[in-house]
């Protein structure tokens, strides 16, 4: 695998991934400077499960899975279709999501409050109507706690599940991660996020029973997530990671999304690719390094 990646341009691949995920080939877009502001550790800190999971290269696969899982809810899907430029600016949407995730994970409380304010302003405009699984038209609003809960559960489950199934979770951080990451939803208006793996599974089961369904726009959006407008080289790597993400998705989500099961072998192939990318990119992102410098400054001033 390393030889294949090298032949296809290892450094170019690494730079491409940085630009795709963060919006900057260096991995340090302008917004990463927000990791330096503030005078506290933030919600989590270097010893947290959140830093452990979100600082791992597995988040690339987790992000693909999260996009697919969100698409299983008609309200979330309609919100994306009607209020984002997913088809004309797919990387912009990914970069904005990465920005929120990174600042909330590694930033100070001041930085998190600023970022939550930005996201909440966007959410105010995301309103409309969607067809549910029974073709009944219902209203949706991105700021509604019920839909915030679905997005939170999809994100939490995806980042944890891929971290576990790719073999990076050697400490069994599941419950700790879910409990810690529940804090990230509070500035957005969600105060009842799951606190454990058991609660997350139960909440997901309730969504499956009452709300998860395919609608007319599900197939085209899923097709777009499966094959975004990347270069041929980028699509080669993306297909490996995408297949690994699908390998971690269970029924009934596979059926709702129109996906065929993928072999767990894709996880092994992806692990090799991800470890190589981690070597090329550095085992810690520029945002984490800036956050560590902020924390060091605070400790020296204490």
Write the layout of secondary structure elements.
Elements: H1 2-7, H2 10-22, H3 49-54, H4 59-70, H5 74-83, H6 90-106, H7 109-125, E1 127-131, E2 137-141, H8 145-165, H9 174-181, H10 197-210, H11 218-226, H12 232-247, H13 253-257, H14 265-281, H15 286-301
Helix pairs in contact: 4-8, 4-12, 6-7, 8-10, 12-14
Short description:
The protein is built from 15 helices and two strands. It is mainly α and 302 residues long.
Describe this structure in words.
The chain is 62% helix and 3% strand. It has helices at 2-7, 10-22, 49-54, 59-70, 74-83, 90-106, 109-125, 145-165, 174-181, 197-210, 218-226, 232-247, 253-257, 265-281, 286-301, and strands at 127-131, 137-141. A two-stranded antiparallel ribbon has the order 1-2. A hairpin with a 5-residue loop joins strand 1 (127-131) and strand 2 (137-141). The N and C termini lie far apart (48 Å).
Q: Any descriptors?
A:
302 residues, mainly alpha, two-stranded antiparallel sheet, 2 strands, 62% helix, globular, disordered N terminus
Biggest sheet descriptor: 2 strands, antiparallel
Rg, alpha carbons: 19 Å
| Termini Cα gap | 48 Å
**Number of separate strands:** 2
Work out the strand percent.
under 5%
* SSE class: mainly alpha
Contiguous uncertain segments of 5+ residues: 1-11
Shape field: globular
- Overall pLDDT level: 88
H/E topology pattern: HHHHHHHEEHHHHHHHH
């Amino acid at each position: 695998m390393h030889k294949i990646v090298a032949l296809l341009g290892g450094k170019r691949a690494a730079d491409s991934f940085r630009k795709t995920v963060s919006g900057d080939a260096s991995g340090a877009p302008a917004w990463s400077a927000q990791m330096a502001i503030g005078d506290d550790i933030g919600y989590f800190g270097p010893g947290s499960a959140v830093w452990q999971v979100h600082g791992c290269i597995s988040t690339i696969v987790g992000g693909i899975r999260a996009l697919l899982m969100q698409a299983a809810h008609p309200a979330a899907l309609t919100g994306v279709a009607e209020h984002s430029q997913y088809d004309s600016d797919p990387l912009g949407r990914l970069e904005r999501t990465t920005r929120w995730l990174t600042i909330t994970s590694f930033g100070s409380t001041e930085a998190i409050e600023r970022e939550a304010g930005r996201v909440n302003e966007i959410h105010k405009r995301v309103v409309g109507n969607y067809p549910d699984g029974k073709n009944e038209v219902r209203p949706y609003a991105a700021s509604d706690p019920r839909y915030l809960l679905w997005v939170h559960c999809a994100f939490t489950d995806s980042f944890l599940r891929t971290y576990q199934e790719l073999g990076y979770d050697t400490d069994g951080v599941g419950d700790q991660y879910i409990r810690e990451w529940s804090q990230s939803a509070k500035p957005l208006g969600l105060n009842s996020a799951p606190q454990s793996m058991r609660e997350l599974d139960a909440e997901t089961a309730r969504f499956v029973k009452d709300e998860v369904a395919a609608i007319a726009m599900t197939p085209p959006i899923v097709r777009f997530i499966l094959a975004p407008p990347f270069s041929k080289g980028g699509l080669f790597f993306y297909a490996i990671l995408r297949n690994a993400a699908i390998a971690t998705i269970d029924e009934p989500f596979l059926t709702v999304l129109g996906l065929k099961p993928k072999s767990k072998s894709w996880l092994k192939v992806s692990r090799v690719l991800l470890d190589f990318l981690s070597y090329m990119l550095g085992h810690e992102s520029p945002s984490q390094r800036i956050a560590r410098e902020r924390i060091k400054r605070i400790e020296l001033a204490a």
